[in-house]
Amino acid sequence: MTFSIHGLAVARGIAIGRAVLAVSSRMEVVHYFIEPGQVEAEILRARRGRDAVAEELQRLQTDMPHDAPPELAALLDVHLMLLQDEMLVNGVKHWITDRLYNAEWALTTQLEIISRQFDEMEDDYLRERKADLEQVVERILRHMRGVASPVAPPPSAPRRQAEAGAEAEFLLGGAADAPLVLVAHDLSPADMLQFKQSVFAGFVTDVGGKTSHTAIVARSMDIPAVVGARSASQLVRQDDWVIIDGDAGVVIVDPTPIILAEYGFRQRQITLERERLMRLRHTPAVTLDAQAIELLANIEQPGDAGAALRAGAAGVGLFRSEFLFMGRSGRLPDEEEQYRAYREAVEGMQGLPVTIRTVDVGADKPLDKGYKDSSLNPALGLRAIRWSLADPAMFRTQLRAVLRAAAHGPVRLLFPMLAHVSEIRQTLAQVDLARAELDARGAAYGAVQLGAMIEVPAAALMVRQFLRYFDFLSIGTNDLIQYALAIDRADEAVAHLYDPLHPAVLRLVADVIAEGARQGKSVSVCGEMAGDVAMTRLLLGLGLRSFSMQPAQILAVKQEVLRADARKLGEWAQQLLDADDPAASLQAP
């Protein structure tokens, strides 16, 4: 009987095929006490499990194909670092030694303690890193139990493909072999690497969010995916026909011939549309009324530069440098390590500009795993530029590395979460000191443009003052919406109030764009609004001429730009600013 499962749409497209259920990595842990004389042996069991996982991940790194997305290597690095996390290792030893827990019990107990810290984090992306830690622990448990890796097509897969129903095969275009889609409770980055090398055409997971690692990798690989589908791995049976609608976030199980035919047609249309969009790669992003639009890419690792170029990006509008700092158990990257990373990104963009945002951590995003923020609301605490200014030596280390990388190509330096003129002055003073330190040792460095993130209402309201000090501005709409509307977008009870079309949000965005135009300085949007094609014409009408987004979104946004008349859209956008309910009038002329 046909039924559907709803989840989160995280990677576009449609996949149709037979379901392959991944072996569940969620294991029931037996809890028991050990004798004092067994402590060392139990610690050794835990260590051997951890070492086996490390060897497995290192082997995956070694065997990684040349065309693997750069995100995969970075995510494997995250898991390897988590394996060595002192809080995890020492915690397991503590529970075994002091409480006489068996190794599995000690491991899951410490996982629960660390998980609570992740749950308290404000940032969506970082909060979902709890899933990475869970996956690492589950891999250790599997090795301790001698269970095989969870992601691999069953030996009977080729036979099942050959036995697929003739009616479905005909509706899918007469293929000799039915595609396979993977259904799992969760997928780790290492699992995703095997997924990349397998025959799977799409995947569904019970858990995960739009900023989870599996979602990020799926988008980079352009594979149809639905996450957060709750009990999909329990409802779908091995070998069921499954349709994954990555655009709508829907999974259809045991579809009828009519539904199969409909989605088969849509699948072919999507393929043709993507091929057509690829023809726009080298087409200049210019509106019908001859307005040149800058389409930039957001990246998280130096290796992402290649994906940005392939998508036709005019540069990098946001390099989130904090990913170089995370998951290192308090061991911050030194100047040389940062310099090499920034230089790789700059050279990878082949002369196109790279905007590097200084580290955006602190409060709810501690670098030291042992640090616990005592503030009642970490989102309003010591984070971003506040954290950097609280540690000037660390801050200047990053500034020197960025300045040195600027000797190899055009670099723009971006500062997050500024709200006070005093913060601006302190920040610029640190830049001057960093230059002086490089001069003192005779190190080469380049000129950089300086910019500020506009992501708190205070900054948007003070845009004139900000532009006295900075060469450009970048609007971080995700945080701006959250702070302007006083809601936590991660809180399910109020998430429905997170509204990019709220009149107050649009007014803040419009005023910043307009003031930048008046002063002849560039303003870009680097939040989710920039990559949402439903928002492209509105942002053009508000005067935005620089968008920064995930590389996979660039061509679709470019198509909207090429079809738009910015002059006509300007009149319509002004009407929306005065509307009580802009969402109701979003359809552009």
Name the descriptors.
47% helix, single chain, 589 residues, 8-stranded mixed beta sheet, 8-stranded parallel beta sheet, alpha/beta, 16 strands, globular
Topology:
Blueprint: E1 3-6, E2 8-11, E3 14-21, H1 39-62, H2 70-83, H3 86-99, H4 103-119, H5 124-127, H6 130-145, H7 157-162, H8 166-171, E4 180-184, H9 189-197, E5 200-205, H10 213-221, E6 225-227, H11 232-235, E7 241-245, E8 250-253, H12 257-278, E9 294-299, H13 305-310, E10 316-320, H14 335-348, E11 354-357, H15 385-390, H16 392-405, E12 411-415, H17 421-440, E13 448-454, H18 457-461, H19 463-469, E14 472-475, H20 477-485, H21 503-518, E15 522-525, H22 528-531, H23 533-541, E16 546-549, H24 554-563, H25 566-577
Parallel strand pairs: 3-4, 4-5, 5-6, 9-10, 9-16, 10-11, 11-12, 12-13, 13-14, 14-15
Antiparallel strand pairs: 1-8, 2-6, 3-7, 7-8
Helix pairs in contact: 1-2, 1-3, 1-6, 2-6, 2-9, 3-4, 4-6, 14-16, 16-17, 23-24, 23-25
Describe this structure in words.
Strand 5 (200-205), helix 10 and strand 6 (225-227) form a beta-alpha-beta unit. The protein is of the alpha/beta class. The chain is globular, with a radius of gyration of 25 Å. It has 25 helices and 16 strands. Helix 1 (39-62) runs antiparallel to helix 2 (70-83) and helix 2 (70-83) runs antiparallel to helix 9. Mean pLDDT is 84; it is low at 151-176. The protein has an 8-stranded mixed sheet with strand order 1-8-7-3-4-5-6-2.
